[in-house]
Write a structure and sequence with these properties.
By secondary structure, this protein is mostly helical. It has helices at residues 2-12, 17-30, 33-36, 40-43, 47-61, 65-82, 85-101, 105-122, 125-141, 145-161, 168-181, 185-204.
């Protein structure tokens, strides 16, 4: 189960979306709550919740938004049942991404608020940074570019302080978009340049 989970993630995050789906499907088929919930303390979050969350993103990118939303709902139900903060923040994060991409901003907003509140309670800087980033992107999507710039930039700074670079080009592109909405084109191009540098550095590794 864990092997298929890792294979799916490796394929999806390197652009092989269609190839990742069978691995996620197989991982979910193999998931046994009795056997596989204990490793959550080693891997950071419950494997079943993480597979459903990752598969939801793959399904959305493959053009199946309704199936993606169904996976996020299942992941959230499992996460709340398990009651582990890291698992719940993980599920909320991916659910909010799918709802944003589907245009369900009113649903995504309280999910991001819950992430930030829970992250503050647990002292989880990484999840607070991600929650802040996506709240900023919601501001941008709702025509509040000025607030979006401040919030996205704050989230990027906090995320970088953790050493994480996962999806950083996406976050920099979001910040560039918010700057462009304000006519701050030099800042927007700077963000795009940083995003390209991050991608090039990753490719060299």
């Amino acid at each position: 189960m864990i092997g298929h989970r890792l294979a799916g993630g490796g394929l999806m995050f390197t652009g092989k979306i269609a190839e990742s789906r069978p691995h996620y499907d197989r991982a979910i088929a193999l998931y046994d709550p009795t056997e596989h919930r204990q490793p959550a303390m080693r891997f950071g979050q419950d494997a079943g919740v993480s597979v459903l969350s990752f598969r939801s993103l793959a399904l959305w990118m493959l053009g199946y938004p309704e199936a993606a939303l169904a996976d996020t709902e299942s992941a959230l139900d499992y996460a709340r049942e398990i009651g582990q903060a890291a698992t719940l923040m993980f599920a909320l994060f991916y659910a909010s991404i799918i709802h944003i991409h589907c245009g369900n901003y009113a649903v995504a907003n309280p999910q991001l608020d819950e992430i930030v509140a829970l992250a503050d309670e647990k002292g989880a800087l990484f999840w607070r940074a991600l929650g802040t980033l996506w709240r900023g992107w919601l501001f941008a999507l709702n025509g509040k570019a000025s607030d979006a710039v401040q919030m996205i930039a704050s989230g990027i700074t906090a995320l970088r302080s953790t050493g994480s670079t996962v999806m950083m080009p996406l976050y920099l592109a979001c910040l560039a978009k918010a700057h462009a909405e304000l006519g701050q084109f030099n800042d927007a191009w700077r963000c795009i340049g940083e995003a390209m540098t991050t991608i090039e550095a990753a490719n060299e590794r």
